[in-house]
């Protein structure tokens, strides 16, 4: 059944040229501090958060109308919720009492699937305790991580006794529920995931890198999807000194990037920042350093100069009359 869905995926995401595999994963963090638990959870389709966790009702919060995929009336979603409740939240006393973990105590769980081209889905379920790997679930068995020591070995023995979990629940989750849910989310959210949002770009100067040098900064913001090309140019020549920062998320789900160039003060003339992005339809954005921002920019500067002159004249008149 899953193999029938793979061509659909190829049709949804033609080219598949992105270097990151398509993935859906859920992260859960439970902290026991000062005799009480705090639980946080989130669901991620690639780098996009699609779910959060309501700890008063122990249910998912669907951040988009399509965050249910097409599971809206199906048992899988309930299964997923009760899976988290029963296995990670409901048994928390096991961690603190049975193993006498100290207070404060932090438990992190990550589970999900990555779709690798040619290899199908690779799914995982991992637990970390106090920030180190503790145990992971593979091939219908819990395996202790070396960092987990003797406690992890005991814990795995205990968990592996629960055949209903290891051969039933967890196996179904990883081999069936997650792969189907990932495909369903990609399908339901395709309008959102395939949207094209044009970048805005502007220039500024950064802190001087040294005497007689300028740091030119090209800011590119508000674009989606993430792949973007930004380069400082002199005419058609790419400036190899261009330094790209990391691509950072904006709060609205779009992306931000800055590209800087360290240049001798005498050599700034003729430099421009060039931006290529899929939303621009081949019409690259080009911003010239030192060029007037726009007609409006000219008008504003003219008005500013006129105001400055008038103010100056005003002072002169007040002094001399
Ligand atoms: C711990 O909990 C107790 C009782 O609930 C409270 O009085 C105390 O202020 C808490 N301490 C800290 C550090 O939060
Ligand atoms: C969380 O659950 C509670 C109790 O069911 C509900 O009243 C509240 O609206 C939920 N919060 C969100 C953000 O969904
Ligand atoms: C999974 O377990 C089965 C039987 O327990 C074994 O035959 C198989 O080689 C294992 N696969 C991996 C990838 O460890
Ligand atoms: C859910 O979506 C998948 C992939 O788009 C589709 O193959 C499947 O039939 C759908 N299931 C339901 C119950 O609609």
UniProtKB/TrEMBL annotation:
- Give GO terms: molecular function aspect only: endogenous lipid antigen binding; exogenous lipid antigen binding; lipopeptide binding
**Location in or out of the cell:** Endomembrane system; Endosome
Give the primary localization class: membrane
Q: Where is the Ig-like domain?
A: 179-279
What membrane topology is annotated for this entry? Single-pass type I membrane protein
Provide the gene name from the record: LOC113178010
Matching InterPro entries, A to Z? Answer: Ig-like_dom (IPR007110), Ig-like_dom_sf (IPR036179), Ig-like_fold (IPR013783), Ig_C1-set (IPR003597), MHC_class-I_related (IPR050208), MHC_I-like_Ag-recog (IPR011161), MHC_I-like_Ag-recog_sf (IPR037055), MHC_I/II-like_Ag-recog (IPR011162)
Q: Which residues cross the membrane?
A: 295-317
Would you say which domain of life the source belongs to?
Eukaryota
Cellular component aspect of the GO annotation = endosome; external side of plasma membrane; extracellular space
In its UniProt entry, the species of origin is given as Urocitellus parryii
Protein's recorded name: T-cell surface glycoprotein CD1a-like
Q: Which GO terms describe its biological process?
A: antigen processing and presentation, endogenous lipid antigen via MHC class Ib; antigen processing and presentation, exogenous lipid antigen via MHC class Ib; immune response; positive regulation of T cell mediated cytotoxicity
What Pfam families does the database record attribute to this sequence? C1-set, MHC_I_3
User: Hey, what's the signal peptide range on this chain?
Assistant: 1-18
Keyword tags: Endosome, Glycoprotein, Immunity, Immunoglobulin domain, Membrane, Signal, Transmembrane, Transmembrane helix
